[in-house]
Amino acid sequence: MRRVRARLLSQFAIGVSTAALVALPGTAAAQDAAATLGNTGPSQIEPQAATPTDTPDTTGDIVVTGIRASLRASADIKRDGQGIVDAISAEDIGKFPDTNLAESLQRITGVSIDRSNGEGSFVTVRGLGPEYNLVVLNGRQLPTAVIGDGNSAPGSRAFDFANLASEGIAALEVYKSGRASVPSGGIGATINIRTPRPFDKVGTRGSVAARGVIDTSQNGKNDITPEVSGIFSTTFADDRIGILANGVYQKRRASVNQANVGWRDGYLGSENNWGSLAQPGDPRAANITNRPSATSVYEVPQNASYDVNDISRERINGQLVLQAKPTDTLVATIDYTYSRNEVKTRNANVGIWFNHNDTSSSWTDGPVAGPRFYTERFTAAEAKDLSYSSALTAYRTENKSLGANLAWEAPGGVTVALDAHHSTAESKPTNKYGNSNSLGTAIFGVANQTINFDNDLPVISYQMQPGIDPLNASLIVPTGNAFRNSYFRDRINQAQLKGHYDHSGSFLDSIDFGFTFTDNKVRSAYGVLQNDTWGGTGGDSAAQRAAAAALLPDDIFKLIDIPSKFKGVGGVGSADIAKQFYGYNFEQVVGLLDSTYGICGGDGNCLTPYTTDRRIREKTVAPYLQINNKFDLFSNPAHLIAGLRYENTTVKSSALVPIPTGTRQNSQNEFNIVYSGNSAFTTFSGGYDEWLPSVDFDVQPIRNVKLRASYSHTITRADYGSLQGGLTLDQLFRVGGGTGAQGNPNLVPYKSKNIDLSAEWYYTPESYMSVGYFRKQVSNYIGVTQLNGPAFNLTNPANGPRYQAAIAALGANATFADIRNYIGANYPGSVVNGTILGTAADAPVNFVISTPFNSDQTATINGFEFAIQHSFWQTGFGTQLNYTIVNGNRNYNNLLPASTSQFAINGLSDSANATLYYDKNGFQARASYNWRAQFLSGGGINPYYTEGYGQLDGTISWQFVPGLTVFAEAINLTGADRRGHRRSDRNVTFVAKQDARYSGGVRFNF
């Protein structure tokens, strides 16, 4: 058999798009990971004898395709890279190992993912979450656009991999150690998305595929949705001109049914706050079983719901690449990349809220006491509501990138490349309501409500007052609603000049040098239209509620069964669980309420103007120099690479600050700020300089074994929300006060000092074993300092002479409705639309204003990575196994109450992957299991944990005639569910029901 040839399309270290290489029919290539970011180099592994599945092409080369081609290319990238690099490569043109890029990345050692709507979306590397990783496209910094949670202006730098389909991707490269020639911005990793180019392999080639997808999580009928992709590449004019085009269309329908529980802060047993358990001596204390001791920490539930979510997603991707080679030493490239991802989620839910008055509960032993159950009883006069709510989430994320590149092999061993691109990412609503909207209805008359926490699923139950039927649609009253309008746009203009000098000396091998200018312009905006008519749209008297209920015809409501939505989850079979509730069409009810009550102004347009509008502009200048040396160490080949990158960044931040004019009280413990509609811009500036050194050393002590050691400094810039200028107050506040935030554009980046060690043995072209150790010392963590005081002369309607007079007249047990009616009757003009307005005579509201700052706190993250990739000789079978251990010195202490601020690292967890594959005689099969241990997903005054999760996926394909393949894929075969909790595993925050997703189709390659 002939040797497998390592085909290199470039001989220089340039972070540009001209050197992307994909594993294609007719080539078995070995290329360094840095083909688009750094250095290239031939394979150091002697090729093995071809197996029967290897077939010679017309030139006599051995062709390895499919799973084995992908694994071989990935092994080449890992072996030939400088520092610590891992990768996933395409199995064939237009065929990536997984249909979701994030799900492919999780197969890499040390990489784990977060899922959204049942799909992989965000990536964590070595315990550092998506906001700590930089994503680049062919070496170019990608703008990001994440629309956020709908409750505030978006501000994340995290990249959502759900926006990109995998069919147009050549490889994913994960740079875990820093390098001067690699763009800065990720202390976790820099992830390079490589796309194919026509000059990757001359001639005409392509692929067309079509598949049907069925997601068994769908509520009701399981629709089959289409996915179509195609890629075409050709060269002509003596292979001096090339064109490549690809396109992907995908549509998906799914459901994610979820139980949610909200909690009050973690209290000590000795604390006496609103919502805390009754203290000894209080008559209610007799209703508490095994009350937490004075030094134990506990949390009581605030609300709970069962949510039924139906999701539709449409994704369109495309790329066009033109390349020209007018001379043997000059290559010009122009490329355009486009992606659009539209997501719509319809939600129906039944929910309960607690007032923490007449309660009963039972608790586990401390020191972290968890609830066994929590019950509250209500009188008929309280008219407690059972919530039937509907929500609509709809947004579009669109990414566009236009780039040009000119690469010149100059005389004297010098190569120079000039690269520039203009890229945008934008997320916004796709309807006239907003991107995150909620609509409340309720039946009034709950007698008691309970949550039982003995099972995985929190069991919600309730009983109504005599004569009140929760399934009598005529009793459903429209209540409050909110329409949220979020917008995010990120525009990056970037120019890079990079060079490489090949030296023929015995020690100095080459020099890399370059200069990058990046202009990053961000706009983040948000507005909300909220009607806090939670007692009833149009008023909360019996007559007003009846009139509002009569507006909604009974046939608009559809019964939803709860147990069937959580099949297989522990607790769903409880006799006490709520069995049914009513859902309804969001748009239809909004139309009725707007035409009658004008909840959106009466014109049907609920898209509210922005009250928060933030503009940030970052300009970064980054020159670098890297010296690459090679030598023999005790007669063994070795490399020493040293580099230095300098970054100078200026920040200009402006914010449109809404001007409040007053306050109002909506219920016993719910208040709102009233805005005038006027706003003003404030502007702040900042900047910083960073020197980022890096050193990489490797040696081959014996054939096919590599030892590596790396030291580097890397940075991650602060999130956009922390950099925003101006003071904003949260519209909702409580009787004890409110909250707000003020940004700080003078924040400097997180900085990590990294040590990486690894040992790797490459014993066949497709097989290796490796063990690695990493240590990161992270500083400049962003902390939050809190300032207490009044703001904008806002006052508290529940803390003033009117309120005190009402209590004196009505008694301490007076309801909110009684107090409001008293104030309305005795203080004209104080009550408007069922709410009590604040006046100058009331006491000021105390606001806790959070402001970010760079703290002196540091964190150490360290761990080990173990990996085996093995091909079982000529059997066609093989395996990939890896395990990552991640440790940190900043763990959350669940024994401390919310009143004690803590600094902890989110995202740290062990992870593992196991894959078994078969690839021979045109038949391919793969089963992969991915597992991630429990991790802290959010900190602050209360912790949020995501529990350990494992998922089994599988694929199978058969090429029954040359170029024509049928295939099938299964995601989450075992239907694994997800769950989260706070301090105790009984403080469950969510339980998400997930089911398997199947697809099948046909692919034609030519």
Specify the structural class: mainly beta
Q: What is the terminal separation in angstroms?
A: 25 Å
The largest sheet is: 30 strands, antiparallel
Number of helices: 7
Query: What multimeric state do the chains show?
Result: single chain
Q: Tell me how many strands there are.
A: 52
Outline the low-pLDDT stretches.
1-64
Quote the average pLDDT. 89
Question: Rounded to an integer, what's the Rg over CA atoms?
Answer: 30 Å
Strand content: over 45%
State the helicity in percent bands: under 10%
Shape: globular
Topology readout:
Layout: E1 55-56, E2 62-63, H1 66-80, E3 85-89, H2 101-105, E4 111-116, E5 119-125, E6 133-137, E7 140-141, E8 171-175, E9 189-194, E10 205-215, E11 224-236, E12 241-263, E13 267-268, E14 288-289, E15 297-298, E16 301-327, E17 330-353, E18 358-363, E19 371-377, E20 385-410, E21 414-429, E22 436-444, E23 446-452, E24 459-464, E25 477-502, E26 508-531, H3 542-551, E27 557-561, E28 580-584, H4 586-597, E29 612-633, E30 636-667, E31 670-699, E32 705-716, H5 720-723, E33 727-729, E34 732-733, E35 738-742, E36 750-764, E37 767-779, E38 782-789, H6 801-810, H7 816-826, E39 831-832, E40 835-837, E41 847-854, E42 859-871, E43 877-888, E44 911-920, E45 923-932, E46 935-938, E47 944-946, E48 949-961, E49 964-971, E50 978-981, E51 988-993, E52 997-1005
Parallel strand pairs: 6-9, 14-18, 35-41
Antiparallel strand pairs: 1-2, 3-8, 4-5, 6-7, 8-9, 10-11, 10-52, 11-12, 12-16, 12-51, 13-15, 16-17, 17-20, 18-19, 19-23, 20-21, 20-22, 21-25, 22-25, 23-24, 25-26, 26-29, 27-28, 29-30, 30-31, 30-40, 31-32, 31-34, 32-36, 33-35, 36-37, 37-42, 38-41, 39-40, 42-43, 43-44, 44-45, 45-48, 46-47, 47-50, ...
Helix pairs in contact: 6-7
